[in-house]
Amino acid sequence: MAVIGFSDLRNNTLPALWDADYFSRLNMRDGTTFEAMAQRASAALAGLNGELLSMPHYSGLFAVQSSPDVKYAIGTSNSWEVATEYGVPDPRRGKTEGHMLPIRPYDWALGWTWMYLQEHFAEDLDADIKSMIDSGRKLWQKALLTRMFDDTANTIDGTAFADLPFANSTNDISTYVPPVSPEGEEFSSTHNHFLGYGTSGITQDTFDVGAIDVCVEHLQEHGYASPFEMCVSRTDISSWAAVTGFKPPNWAGISYHSSAVERSAFGDIGSYIGSVECKRGMVQLWETPRVPTKHAALYKRTEEGNEGGVGAPLRVRIDDMYGFGFQLVPGQYVNSPVHLLVGWNKFGVGVGNRLNGVLLDLAAS
Question: What is the pLDDT averaged over residues 350-356?
Answer without folding.
Answer: 95
